[in-house]
Amino acid sequence: MKLIARYLTREIASGIVAVLLGFLGLFAFFDLINELDDIGQGGYRLPQAVLYVLLGLPSHIYELMPVAALIGCIYALAQFAQNSEFTAMRAAGMSRGLALRGVLVLGVFLAILTAVAGEWVAPMAEQRAQQLRMDVLGKGSGVGVFRSGLWLKDSVRGPDGQRLQTRFVNIGQLEADGGLSRVEIHEFDPEFRLTAVIHAERGRYQRAARGEPSRWRLEGVETTYFDVKKTATGYDALHAAVEKTPEFTWISELNPALLSVLAIAPDRMSALALWRYTSHLKENAQNANRYELALWKKVIYPLAIIVMLMLALPFGYLQARAGGIGLKLFFGISLGVVFYILNGLFSNLGLINTWPPWLAVSIPSIVFLVLALIMLNRMGRT
């Protein structure tokens, strides 16, 4: 029985790898076509475009793995049924429980690999890809990635957690090395009265000791201070004073690690980066639903691989007269497309209707799990 289980697992894994490679080739081709418009700008040439596409493949692996697992498993099982191998395995004593156990072991292994890829490999590759674009498109052409400026909210809190100051930060360009260009900071007091506007040509991060807040060294600084003072007639008057300094140390909760994730789509960020940025948004009373949704998807999505393999197993019990490999693959691809669409649909519905993020990302997997259990139950009666 162990020999049969290993053979079953090996063939299913081979089918999944084959389908995944096919999908990756297709997606890489379309990604390269999308990059053709940018080739020739700055230092962006065909080798850089190919490297950018290759760096995006780990993210595609993470996104496509559940669908590839479903189609690859159905393909392998359909071949078994076509050649009557599955019937021979059952005659040799392979029970439904043994087949399900072998599929689940493979599913857990693939889920762990997918989680590792989504947490470490894909985010690092995506960050490197964005840095590549900054190098050859941003600096080379003099145009920043954030053409209209990146706006962030930052807060200064006292030891008791009370908010002492609110700041709105505009970054004209985020450099590939983590530096900042064309920085503008608007500072407000607890009553949201404007107290200062800081303009800086550049900003460089200064690594702080453990437990200390982040520090930035701003260069080419011009600060406009605003203050309300009483006039001789007793009226309040707004006074402004301008001060220019070559350097200025700016203490902030923002750091390069936090800023770097903003150049990456939430779905391609690591769970740790999503958790950190979500905490930062909540501390500054900002809407974090989009990033919370992506965080929960990181937790739930790898488990969908196990559900997909459970859903594919009943196809092996269908005899050749119930449809050839082509028909079974058609059903498998259709189920994969439906799952992919439902993932996007319920994610958007969750954002629009402010559903709990864990529920919005779990609904497609729950629906397919129920469908898999129903099919497995009917399979046991045949």
TrEMBL record:
UniProt xrefs under NCBIfam families: LptG_lptG
Transmembrane regions listed in the UniProt entry: 12-30, 50-77, 98-118, 299-318, 325-346, 358-376
InterPro entries, A to Z: LptG (IPR030923), LptG/LptF_permease (IPR005495)
Keyword field: Cell membrane, Membrane, Transmembrane, Transmembrane helix
Topological type in the membrane: Multi-pass membrane protein
Subcellular locations according to the entry: Cell membrane
A GO CC annotation given for this chain: ATP-binding cassette (ABC) transporter complex
Major place of residence: membrane
GO BP: any one term: lipopolysaccharide transport
Keyword Membrane among record annotations: yes
Protein name: LPS export ABC transporter permease LptG
UniProt key word Cell wall biogenesis/degradation: no
Gene: lptG
Pfam (any one): LptF_LptG
